[in-house]
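for the recovery benchmark. tokens below, seq after
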């Protein structure tokens, strides 16, 4: 059975209308919106699954029908050829028969039948009798052959007609299957497109939540003091767990602390840049004018709608960029200058638009920075990064945590110059290796637990019961996704810890009261946590790394969050 087209269309449209309603009826918190979208995506995936299953089945049937049609076509072709051969042979046989009959009657007139009858002792007459008998025998055989050919042709024609009928039936079945398959493909595509829109909205909301942590995007933002090593902090409740992320948003492009580490290791600025960007060329560009706005209207990537507060040449603009300390090694400074020059030209369309003055674009002050930074600007004057003749958007960020990612990896537009790479001085086999070999290991944000609660010494430590609550929330959602809207933190309108346990137990699942241990598995090549395993009073359980992260960020108290693809769990 499958949904009729009209019903399926109504079903799909229901999701569109439901989404619009949730956006317009009343204002919701970011966590509530994320929970709504997560549920919609889950429901949509559940609705797509049977369509995909049916589509797969239809494809198998189509393949079978095509195979049968091809086989019947071959049989029809074979029978057609046999018919042609039989009909040709029949015509030849008819000609032979006609010739033999003609010769028989011709010879029969050459002798007097009376003489033949009474001259029985004449050897010649005996030959004539033998000849007549032979002709009659041959003619009889020819008649039998013609009769057999006629029968064979009738049978072959009948079989061919039956196969043609079967072939036509299969062709109709194939046409119906193709029509249904095409319809399903269209509906699946619509649903997948809508799912992609929901996922994009989800990523946008998650980015907004991440922004609420006020994490420093760049070194120059001055926010690195927000990254603290909670391993040294006592929350005051004894045993607990904290989730530490490697690096901070957004892990794309030039890793500023990584450039610092590479420069200390003796690499020049071109080597540094090539470590973070794919297939870029170092070119020279003229000294165009740049306009800077106050950054009060953050919108599109150009952030070009604020009030203009400064105008000047490209090179003078760069001398007022405060992204990294002037005391850093000169090669790290030059790498940052080339990236900054490329970035401003790309996002302003070669100076046609303005650029904001804060870390959402580049940290800018009206006073020149001077020192080693100005020297780096002068040394690399006009130098930019291009790909296929176009200046690239050379993104950069404070700390990659040992791994950079492509722009598509973090939900941005796909580009050919960003890359997912391990940013270390050698292979790594453990987190300890990563912390020792990563080029950006000196950053205070290299390995940190993000977010805090005032009542627990401003730390991100969670009690074993709170980690158990996050586990229970995931198990409850997996059992019944309709409850997702209730999985927000209790202080944000979500169900209490006890209610989550009761709801889970009512669905036949034993809830956790406490977690005793936790560990992660990770992909050392791409830098992603692939799985987290936890044990407690209800047994052991494992989750996909990204799944756990998503639920953790929705359910964890206050603003405590996992902010990157690679994270670890610590126990105290």
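predicted aa per position
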């Amino acid at each position: 059975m499958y949904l009729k087209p009209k019903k399926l269309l109504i079903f799909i449209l229901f999701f569109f209308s439901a989404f619009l309603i949730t956006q317009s009826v009343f204002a919701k918190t970011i966590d509530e919106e994320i929970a709504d979208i997560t549920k919609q995506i889950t429901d949509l995936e559940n609705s797509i699954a049977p369509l995909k299953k049916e589509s797969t089945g239809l494809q198998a049937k189509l393949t079978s029908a095509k195979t049968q049609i091809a086989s019947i076509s071959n049989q029809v072709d074979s029978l057609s050829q046999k018919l042609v051969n039989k009909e040709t042979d029949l015509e030849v046989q008819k000609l032979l028969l006609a010739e033999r009959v003609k010769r028989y009657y011709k010879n029969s007139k050459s002798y007097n039948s009376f003489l033949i009858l009474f001259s029985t002792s004449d050897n010649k007459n005996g030959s004539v009798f033998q000849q007549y008998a032979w002709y009659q025998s041959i003619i009889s055989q020819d008649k039998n052959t013609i009769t057999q050919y006629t029968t064979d042709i009738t049978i072959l024609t009948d079989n061919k007609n039956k196969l043609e009928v079967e072939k036509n039936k299969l062709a109709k079945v194939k046409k119906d299957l193709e029509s249904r398959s095409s319809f399903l493909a269209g509906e699946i595509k619509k649903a997948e497109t809508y799912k992609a829109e929901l996922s994009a909205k989800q990523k946008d909301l998650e980015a907004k939540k991440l922004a609420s942590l006020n994490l420093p995007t760049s070194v120059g933002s001055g926010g690195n003091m927000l990254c603290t090593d909670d391993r040294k902090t006592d929350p005051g409740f004894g045993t607990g767990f904290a989730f530490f992320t490697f690096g901070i948003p957004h892990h794309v492009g030039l890793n500023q602390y990584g450039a610092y580490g590479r420069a200390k290791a003796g690499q020049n600025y071109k080597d540094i840049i090539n470590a973070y960007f794919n297939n870029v060329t170092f070119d020279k560009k003229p000294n165009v004018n740049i306009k800077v706005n106050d950054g009060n209207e953050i919108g599109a990537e150009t952030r070009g709608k604020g009030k203009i507060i400064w105008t000047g040449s490209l090179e003078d603009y760069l001398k007022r960029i405060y992204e990294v300390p002037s005391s850093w090694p000169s090669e790290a400074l030059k790498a940052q200058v080339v990236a900054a020059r490329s970035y401003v030209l790309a996002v302003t369309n070669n100076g046609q638009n303005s650029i904001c003055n804060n870390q959402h674009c580049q940290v800018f002050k009206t006073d020149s920075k001077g020192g080693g930074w100005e020297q780096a600007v002068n040394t690399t004057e006009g130098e930019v990064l291009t790909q296929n003749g176009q200046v690239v958007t050379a993104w950069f960020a404070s700390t990659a945590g040992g791994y950079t990612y492509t722009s598509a990896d973090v939900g941005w537009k796909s580009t050919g110059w960003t890359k997912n790479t391990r940013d270390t001085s050698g292979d790594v086999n453990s987190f300890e290796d990563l912390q020792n070999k990563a080029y950006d290991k000196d950053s205070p944000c290299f390995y940190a637990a993000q977010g805090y609660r005032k009542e627990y010494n401003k730390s991100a430590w969670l009690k074993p019961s709170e980690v158990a609550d996050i586990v229970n929330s995931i198990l409850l959602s997996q059992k019944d996704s309709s409850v997702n809207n209730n999985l927000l933190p209790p202080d944000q309108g979500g169900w209490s810890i006890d209610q989550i346990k009761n709801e889970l137990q009512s669905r036949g699942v034993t809830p956790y009261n406490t977690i005793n241990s936790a560990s992660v598995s990770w992909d050392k090549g791409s830098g992603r946590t692939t799985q987290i395993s936890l044990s407690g009073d209800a047994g052991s359980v494992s989750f996909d790394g990204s799944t756990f992260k998503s639920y953790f960020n929705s359910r964890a108290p206050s603003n405590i969050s996992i902010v990157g693809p690679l994270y670890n769990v610590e126990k105290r």
